[in-house]
Amino acid sequence: MQDICASAVGLEADVNAWWESIGSRNIIIRNNRFIRCKFEPEYLNGVIESHTMSQTTPAGVHQKITIENNIFLGSDGNIIKLGSADDVKIIDNIMDAPDDEAIFLYNTKMFLFQGIN
Fold first, then answer.
1. Which residue from 85, 23, 19 is spatially nearest to 58, judged by alpha carbons?
2. 8 A C-beta contact, residue 79 and residue 44
3. What burial class does residue 62 get, using C-beta atoms within 10 Å of its C-beta: 0-12 exposed, 13-18 middle, 19+ buried?
4. How far apart are CA 115 and CA 17, in angstroms?
5. Of the N and C termini of the chain, which has fewer Cβ atoms inside 10 Å?
6. pLDDT in tens, 22-50
């Protein structure tokens, strides 16, 4: 995915206002190249992001997320921003230096980081 002005992958479950969707399960994001994604400001701040439209929703809305063997280059904002997630694996990814934190987790439990360059 290249030259995307917003998030390349967004997992959204609005539990705050619109109640439009349910959570996600068994997500695998593997063997992708994310080049110059997320270079325009908007409410989603990560190249890959999960959220619930609430900073207080506990872990478990999004479950079993694996982000593995991807390349992230030239992206603004966070590279991976996950909220209200449970059982997250971020394995063997290559990331350059974004403007914000490369990985930002909130209200998330049971996570594994391995082999991040």
1. 85
2. no
3. buried
4. 38
5. C
6. 889 999 999 999 998 876 666 667 899 98
